[in-house]
Amino acid sequence: MLGVIVKCLIVLMPWKLRRLILNRFYHYNIHPKARIGFSYIYPKHLVMEEGATIGHLNVAVHLNMIKMGRNSIISRGNWITGFPTGTDSKHFSHNKERKSELIMGKESAITKEHHIDCTDIICIGDFVTIAGYRSQLLTHSIDLYEGRQDCKQITIGNYCFVSTGVKILGGSELPDYSVLGAGAVLNKKYTEKYKLYAGVPARPFKEMDHNAKYFKRMIGFVD
Fold it and tell me: Angle at CA 128, nearest 5°, toward 153 and 157?
């Protein structure tokens, strides 16, 4: 309990002092030009490259690592959880390769009020937008056949656009230059680029224009 109180007090400190404490005493690697707002961000390891930003009212706990590439953004009100390795728990003990990590490439963004479950790795590529509100990325579930908790990695390729209110389940992969339509449920790996994937469950719906400006951005911010 005391540790939680101390962490909450650190959250309220001025950023320059907070960054110094996080880097020195928590052994994080936060670039001088990265920034965290008033958010409770305490994975075991944190790497924030130049320009990476975490906004206000985010919570990130019980993860082995968060790594944010250059100019990547976690905006506001997101709940990011995991189930760290190296514990005595029987949960996921059969999966020796599991890593509880959120990896974001450069110029990518997670917007507002999403639930990101990093029991296994969630890997988000470069120039990706997790857009809108209240999407769920869920790497773990119950394996009914084996009668135990299980988890699988989620991979989102480069230059993808993930629309509002989607669900992405463990073992799923969205290939580069893809769009996941609003309200879709992605539950498997796909490999075809330049597709709109939509529906429940999500399937290739139509071809995307290869010349769309979103797919050719040199900076992540969208006006």
Answer: 45
pTM listed for this prediction: 0.95
Q: Give dist(CA 52, CA 50) in Å, integer.
A: 6
Q: Which phi and psi (to 5°) does residue 70 adopt?
A: -55, 130
Residue 28: closest CA among 54, 5, 9: 54
CB of 135 within 8 A of CB of 166? yes
- Are 76 and 223 in contact by the 8 Å Cβ rule? The answer is no
**Angle between helix 2-11 and helix 15-25 axes, rounded to 10 deg:** 140
DSSP per residue, 183-209: T-EE-SB---SSEEEETTTTEEEEEPP
Q: What is the pLDDT of residues 168-213, one digit of tens each?
A: 999 999 999 999 999 999 999 999 999 999 999 999 999 999 999 9
Q: How open is the CA angle 73-163-125, to the nearest 5 degrees?
A: 45
Token couple for 207? 């071809």
- Tokens of residue 154, six digits: 């989620």
Q: Which pair of tokens denotes residue 181?
A: 């339509």
Tokens linked to 192: 């075809």
